[in-house]
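Could someone model zinc ion with this protein?
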Amino acid sequence: MPAPSAAPRRPSTLLAVCLLGLGLALPQGAAAERRPFAPPGTPARYPPARQYDLLHRKLDLAFDWDARSVEGTAVNRLAPLLPGTTAITLHAVDLDVRSVTVDGVAAEWSVRPEARELVVELPRPASPSDELEVAVAYSARPAMGLYFVGPDEGYPDKPRQIWSQGESEFNRHWFPSWDYPNDRATTELAATVRQPFEVVSNGRLLGVDELPDGRRTFRWSTERPHVTYLVSVVVGDLVEIEAAAGGVPVEYWVPAGREVEARRSFGRTPAMLEFFADAIDEPYPWERYAQTTAVDFIWGGMENVSATTQTLATLHPEAAAPESSSDGLVAHELAHQWFGDLVTTDSWAHAWLNEGFATYFTGLWFEHAEGADEFAWRRWEWREDYLREDREEYRRPIVTHRYPAPMEMFDDHLYEKGALVLHMVRGLTGEEGWWTGIRAYADAHRDRTVVTEDLRTAFEEATGASLGALFDGYVHGAGHPELAVSWSWLPERRSVRLDVEQTQETPPGLPLAETGLFAYPVEVGLVAADGSVTTTTVDLAAERSQTFWLPAASRPETVVFDPDGTFLAVLDFDKPAAEWIAQLRVAGPLWAKLQAIEALGERGGPAAIEALGELAAGGHPSHAARSRAAKALAEIGTPAALAALEPALDDPDSRVRTAALEGLGSFARGTAPEELRRLIARLDAALAGDRSPHARAGAAKALGRFTDDEARAAAILLRALDQPSHREVVREAAAESLAGLGHAAAWDRLRRLAGYGAPAESRGAAMKALAELAGGDATRKGEAYDLLSRWARTDRAFRARQGAYDALVELDDPRAVALLEAIARDELDPQQRRSAREAARKLRSASSGAEDPSLERRVEDLERELDRLRRELGERGEG
Ligand SMILES: [Zn+2]
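Reply:
Sure, complex below.
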């Protein structure tokens, strides 16, 4: 599944969809704040031992929305693996089992709740030549795995739906089977529902039977074996839009009235399907490809075999594109139909073989459809996401058997770093080798489950490449290289001397503990005065420091290290601003420009401002180059930088306008009153008139920093609280900014916006704003604690409960630690338990004085101000 369902990424909302930090010179000290990924005592987890080969699941179930129940029979056809098998185990949780038969004969059975298993005694010992039909009659009111959503007093217009979410181990909550990805079987599902519900499930629709009582039974069948977590059902009042990709039927299922948005979100599916099938040289594997929209879906999407479930929230108005585009989500889930569904990870330890692939193939789609720059930008974002998690959360090997719960593996190491590993494989094997290797891997492992060695071996056998060092370093080892790079030109040797030092820590206990050093070939570009670039490759060895000599008849303008960002590393390249400007201006990959933009934003100065200004003012076709240049100018923060930034406010691409508008916040302090009013008026105009909700949200975020004219900024933000927008991005930003301004008069408005029944997507931001605004006011703090603790415990919306945990951390009331710990014990959903546990941990360390968020913010503000003054002084000095 992709990461979060919030656009555009996974983080704050649990979700992710499929998808923040500084790229180049990261403060190394931050590593000390990392927590362990797997706390001490976390057991190693391996695939459970199998007693049989599961051949077929046949489910005949009635779904009752009113009773929130499922009832019927599950038949598992299976063959024992060893002679003399006397009992078999099915995975099952909280099922009310009525009877069990084996080949029609009543059988003894017992439930082992602690193991989440149903054990069936076979009437006679069985052997591998036997095919047994184990039928379980049962009913259930599942708390997980199968969700019943619909209208209530808070949200009376919410459509009624029932939908399942099997990954990782949740389908056992609604039917008994072998629910672990190390076995594959075919599936039939006969689903009986009331009118007007439709049922969308996996495979082919065999028929719909009308029952005498008015209900209908939808009979679905999938004839190609697949693992159990990919079995899915969506029940809802939905309309179907038909399309086709070659001979493959393609369907989009949405609530009536959403057809235009459905075509906007899903319309590129056929082109993506054909691209993947051609590129992988493996026909689309399943009977058809459906995407069904689910209300309040807990993820962005889930790649159920032939029938992906997508969050309804991915449908968006035209004005919200391109930020809210569904293309990334659609490509991710579709790529899983090969990598994840046709070839499936054997266990959660190797889940990057699902998620790293789906993420990387999404990038490949963008490379194919939108070009090299867009692909480079995606990789840049993956790298930032992974580095943020590595810096602020924890560091772990991509493949590990030690994890607290399966879903905790689904993080930025799995998706983003996993994708970057595949890109490094491509870098090592070359274009031909990459596709040869991918095709060999798909060919050897279709219809099978895989471990990481299968991928490495397939590539090595097909292409001759040697991937051991790469996999040991980046997949089985944790972390990444941190490279300190410098160069000089020696006229007497007519050579460039390039020094590279690997400065990363090499913690004990990891596979590479002996060295923790990385080895791979890196491209280096020498930029001549006329702008021509000579590229050469140097072989980085697993050594602390290395010196390379590169022939150069004259002194290059600059040297560029790994210009296309092929290998994952944090680079500290000590070069003066003039060289970064040369790197920025030379024709070359976007990656090298993004490196230069970031470095120039940190350095500042008139020349940097001029170069960044050219870029921000339409100087590059990529939105990413322009918006990052705008962001860098905002970081420089001087009057000259403001002047250089302003043209970007009118960029035709809303992503650039958003960065520029948000950047105006950097000029909110120490500016003359008249100028302050001009900037606020500019933001006001954007908030009222920009067609993009993301640009309007950018303006609202900037207004939160105008503390020198708080009244004017707050008045605008209060109006913005009334502004509905796609996913409530404007209300969310306005709530955050009112808190940032300390505008206590917003209290009542925010309290209403945080409550059940308010727009769901901005409730979390409103809760956090309440916590911030409570500040040192004891009465307000008390009121905020009462509200937040109630929402954290009992709110019906899981995202609101999570929002309340975060807000409780912000409120910093020591009573919340016990509350959050209790929630971490009692919540059913493992994601929710993890969020509550994390919130309790943060609060404990905050209470111990290790982190005072408000103090930290003030220090950050002062540091920024100091930086700005330094740059301004430098600017005057240099200018
Ligand atoms: Zn995925």
